[in-house]
Design a protein that fits this description.
The chain contains eight helices and ten strands. It is α/β, with parallel strands linked by helices. β1, α2 and β2 form a beta-alpha-beta unit. The longest helix has 23 residues.
Length: about 260
């Protein structure tokens, strides 16, 4: 026996209602303190991770607060909001998929607000031979090791098509890594490697001995969109995070 699509939808709502019933019972038990919660799923973006510790400094240390912060891909960002009760998410996608994402969000009862638009830049070790070039082209990257996220995802495309669409044509070794800090370590220790990223804060580049370079051949534009359910009102903690996110965005993209 299998659930119909309507049955799957019913189960999702039923689970959500039962969670809320449990939460209400917990709140009104004698002596129970209501916990504040903040939850967000984000892309592996340095300006977002730069904002997160600043946000944490503004949380009252003695308050009953739970924070959930997860770096992941677009599929899990959407899934976490719809099925795992995460409140906020940030989608990152190419401009060419803008109409698809807007249509998809409308169908799923999500709303979004633009955080920033950008083109990817290159980062690499200060010792990389590529840093000696006046202008790096796509062809210059052939023969070097490309570091890439291991789980690129566009809901409308199969994984093989996403890899073809999202990852540049590359002649040479490509290493897929899930964890962002490991990517930076690899780039730092191997001057024959490089990675495409959104702009990186200067202090993070300095920490890992990296440099950031614009590639004139790269014309592709991306968007980061803050999303949540259309019936959700941002909490005090949500608004504090958004403030720090905008500050980080302005600092990182203006500095670079």
């Amino acid at each position: 026996m299998f659930l119909t699509p309507d049955g799957e939808l019913f189960i999702q709502y039923a689970k959500r209602i039962l969670k809320q019933v449990d939460a209400v019972e917990s709140i009104f038990k004698e002596g129970t303190t209501v916990k504040k919660q903040f939850s967000i799923s984000v892309p592996r973006a340095s300006y977002v991770s730069y904002a997160f510790p600043e946000f944490s400094k503004r949380i009252e240390r003695n308050s009953e607060t739970e924070i959930f912060y997860r770096e992941t891909n677009d599929y899990r960002v959407i899934n976490n909001i719809l099925k795992e009760d995460y409140k906020l998410g940030i989608l990152r996608y190419s401009e060419q998929h803008d109409s698809y994402y807007k249509s998809m969000m409308k169908k799923k009862g999500l709303v979004g607000e633009l955080v920033t638009e950008f083109s990817y830049v290159l980062i690499m070790s200060k010792e990389s031979p590529l840093t000696k070039k006046d202008n790096i082209t796509f062809n210059d990257l052939n023969g070097y090791i490309e570091i890439a996220h291991a789980d690129p995802y566009v809901p409308s495309l199969p994984f093989s098509e996403v890899k073809k669409d999202e990852l540049s044509d590359h002649k040479g070794c490509r290493v897929f890594v899930f964890e962002r800090a490991s990517q930076f370590e690899l780039l730092s220790k191997n001057p024959e490697s490089y990675m495409w990223v959104s702009s990186i804060p200067d202090d993070l580049l300095e920490r890992y001995g990296l440099v950031q370079i614009v590639c004139q051949d790269n014309k592709k534009r991306y968007k980061d969109i803050l999303i949540h359910k259309e019936d959700y009102s941002l909490s005090e903690l949500d608004n504090i995070f958004v403030e720090e996110l905008i500050k980080a965005k302005r600092k990182v993209f203006s500095d670079n």
